[in-house]
Amino acid sequence: MTTLPPRAGRRCHNALNPLHSTVYFSPDFAKELAALGVTDSSAAYFAGRAAAMGSVGPGVVTASFYNFNHELVARHLPAVWDTASPEAVLAARLRAADATLRRLLGDAAVRSQEMAEAARLALRATEGCTRHARPLYAAHADLPVPDEPHLAYWHAATLLREHRGDAHLVALLSAGLDPLEALVSHTATGKGMVPRWILATRGWRRADWDAAAERLRGRGLLDEQGELTEAGAALRSELEDHTDRLDAAPYEHLGAADVERLTELGRNFLGAAVAAGAFPQDLAGKG
Hints:
Elements: H1 8-21, H2 27-35, H3 41-50, H4 58-65, H5 70-76, H6 80-83, H7 86-105, H8 107-110, H9 113-126, H10 135-141, H11 149-175, H12 179-188, H13 195-201, H14 206-218, H15 230-246, H16 249-254, H17 256-275
């Protein structure tokens, strides 16, 4: 039985995960990967997020990332490892995280007691995470914790992100949503990426998107205007509830009061990052 208020873990995740993600939108990340010889943005993303798993091929990344077209992944992996080793990519990613957080939050926030507190709480939450059936989380859990609090916080946010992400894939499979159906239905909630961003970064064509939408209509989950039906909204809600159940352990381990405090701290840091232009303005929505 949970000791937390409803959706407390999800709210905490939603406060921490986007700050982790700022790195992949950051010019600092692109600069660091380009210095290693990786100049294609897709190759840089695949390498940056997959490097903890070692010199993996396209099958591993397609499976663990879930919503990318395998053809796009195979275009860059395993070839990217001939240009930059996983170890070099991980070091570059951490340098990019350092530069990105300092630029978005400012040195005062990076050195603050609040950042140190957030790092302690987030790392304590990760003590409740589990490795089984969670490949991206497990790979990152084998990495050392950085010494500096802002990087330790970013590292812990990475662990919590991938722990929930791996669980979410189980929920998607249980709901019978393939990679593109998951994207189309998420965008229909108004909380996902707009279609043009997905098509530009995930390797899908407009025809693929339209076919997935038609499959969702056939299941009664999407209407003719591309909006979620009552059944579709219920499915997306249950998806998140299912993910919450599979991802409860770290937040149960932390406890209700500290989850609330970590959420507060995370929202403050995230708000500052968003105000500093961490994400493209046209990233999210129905499009």
